[in-house]
Design goal:
single chain, alpha/beta, Rossmann fold, 2 domains, 10-stranded mixed beta sheet, 24 strands
């Protein structure tokens, strides 16, 4: 969520002007300032806000002298002895820091909350170095709570955290260390930072470099700068693993469960920043009150309107979640949903509920990968008997095919939310660079819903190899498709030419295929989203030996 033109998290000029107009009206709630918000239809909202709450900006001093930039909203006219719940908002990763939440202040204030939003150290106008939600940031969160509970009228027993992205991670980690955090809502959250950086032995370089650019390396701690260089150089050692583990909510699972902390998590099916399986794993491992929302799109897409003060499922769900556990009234009065709530691609109006992930995921059906028939370039993906004995040779040239994880980080997912999923022209894919397996057309609408797994045997000419698997919804009449899910896998062998059987998970999915469509599995050797272990130019064989035949397990069922 940066404002630089090269960032996938860009805020446009009107977004920035609106936020600055809101800030000026909050600092000076005069008719002139509030009246300027008419151009965005916000004057009435902030006039009402000024009647019920007082806003000010402040700096909060940490124990080491570092000053954190913050904003505080406190209800007006509390009766003597009356207290109110409070919500703390650590900033997302954006150069305007905590001001990204200004659009939410009226809802929290009208719901009776005190609100303290702040930018973590090193971010936006806060001092210090960036530690990436590390122990220092968690210690800072505790000091922020200390400052909050000293404010007259704030109930120290009714404190919740809400955060988006970087703010979600900070919120979850703070709750693991400070029992005063009674409830957390984390949108576009992460569960395991290492899994987000390193999937099936493959670095997520494009997302990693985009995040480093947002942080700004010059503001990062020495520890983080060492980790940055190690990830860039593929020197994944104990320091990198430990760095990620400390910053992973999954590591602190016992604290959440011992405290029975109510936790709301949201993510997206086409998430390209943080690992969706890791978020699902965190959710499934929690034993306290919990809720998981999974939406169409990519990182931050779902909550973006809500952060601006409009309606969105993540923020509406968060208001209800905190109201339920803290006694506020920012939401619409409805009870929050526990369990799994989801949309399916690409229907924003879909809204499904399941008690847990186990009841959500459909039973998996096994589709075997066959060898191509004589004179055919592609092969069959079908149920039935395993298909051993075939081999496909792929050229690894460092060049991708027409099929990639996402042409653009975040923005491709945003287009999906607007009903404009990217079109992949698989008929035009160079079959020297990728192997393709296709099902027969389905005679009725089908639903892919849950976890997927693929097994293949990889035999590179060199010692190491990277492959990337994609599952597409393909129109047989046009050869065009939409991506359903994907995953990379890197094998590291002891000698060149060694065959290695790998079984790896694809990202979970929820996708409805129309009648007559096909599922299409594409396996290539390069995607600019990931690191590439192939020594180019070279060849990589995909094979299916007897006893370890290749397959794709798909959670597939008919549409009711």
């Amino acid at each position: 969520m940066d404002s630089s033109p090269d960032s996938p998290f860009t805020l446009n000029a009107d977004d920035l002007a609106r936020l600055e107009g809101i800030r000026e009206a909050l600092l000076d709630p005069s008719p002139r300032r509030i009246g300027r918000l008419d151009q965005w239809g916000l004057a009435d909202t902030y006039e009402t806000y000024a009647e019920v709450a007082a806003y000010r900006e402040l700096s909060i001093a940490m124990a080491d002298g570092t000053m954190l930039d913050a904003a505080l909203s406190v209800p007006r006219n509390l009766a003597p002895g009356q207290t109110c719940p409070a919500v703390v908002l650590p900033a997302p990763l954006i150069n305007i820091g905590h001001r990204a939440y200004l659009g939410m202040f009226p809802r929290w204030a009208l719901g009776g909350y005190a609100v303290l939003a702040y930018s973590q150290r090193g971010l936006a106008a806060s001092g210090g170095e960036i530690h990436v939600a590390g122990p220092q940031d968690v210690a800072d969160a505790t000091e922020v709570i200390d400052a909050l509970v000293r404010i007259d009228g704030v109930d120290p027993d009714r404190i919740g955290f809400f955060g988006s992205s970087y703010g979600a991670g900070t919120s979850l980690l703070a709750a693991a260390k400070d029992r005063r955090v009674k409830v957390v809502a984390g949108t576009s959250a992460w569960g395991d930072l290492f899994a987000s950086l390193y999937e099936n032995g493959t670095r997520h370089l494009k997302a990693f470099e985009a995040l480093v650019q947002l942080f700004g390396e010059e503001r990062c701690s020495k520890e983080f700068r060492r980790v940055i260089e190690k990830i860039r150089n593929n020197a994944i050692d104990d320091e990198v693993r430990d760095f990620a583990a400390v910053r992973s909510p999954r590591t602190h699972l016992d604290a959440y469960n011992d405290n029975a902390t109510p936790i709301l998590l949201t993510t997206a099916w086409h998430e390209t920043i943080f690992s969706v399986p890791a978020v699902v794993d965190l959710f499934s491992s929690l034993t306290g009150p919990k809720s998981l929302l999974v939406q169409v799109g990519d990182h931050g897409n779902g909550e973006l309107p809500g952060l601006a003060g409009l309606l969105s499922k993540p923020t509406e769900t968060a208001y209800r979640w905190l109201d339920h556990h803290l006694g506020g009234s920012a939401g619409d009065g409805r009870e929050p949903r526990f369990g799994v709530r989801s949309e399916y691609m690409h229907n924003l109006l879909s809204d499904l509920f399941h008690e847990d992930w186990a009841s959500y995921a459909l039973p998996r059906k096994r589709f075997h990968l066959a060898g191509p028939a004589a004179g055919q370039g592609d092969a069959q993906l079908a149920e039935g008997a395993p298909q051993p004995g075939w081999s496909r040779s792929l050229k690894a040239t460092g060049r991708d095919t027409a099929v990639v994880v996402a042409p653009k980080l975040v923005q491709t997912g945003l287009a999906e939310r607007m009903g404009l999923p990217h079109v992949y022209k698989t008929a035009e894919v160079d079959r020297d660079l990728a192997a393709i397996w296709t099902t027969e057309p389905f005679p009725q609408p089908m639903r892919v819903q849950g976890d997927l797994e693929v097994r293949v045997t990889v035999k590179p000419r060199a010692m190491d190899a990277t492959i990337v698997a994609y599952l597409l919804d393909c129109d047989p009449a046009t050869g065009k498709g939409h991506i359903i899910t994907n995953a990379p896998c890197t094998v590291t062998n002891q000698q060149a030419g060694q065959a290695t059987t790998v079984t790896f998970a694809l990202q979970p999915a929820h996708y409805v295929l129309a009648r007559g469509r096909r599922l299409q599995l594409v396996i290539g050797t390069h995607d600019p989203f990931f690191s590439d272990a192939n020594s180019t130019p070279t060849t990589v064989e995909i094979t299916s030996p007897e006893g370890t035949e290749s397959y794709l397990d798909i959670p597939l069922g008919t549409v009711d």
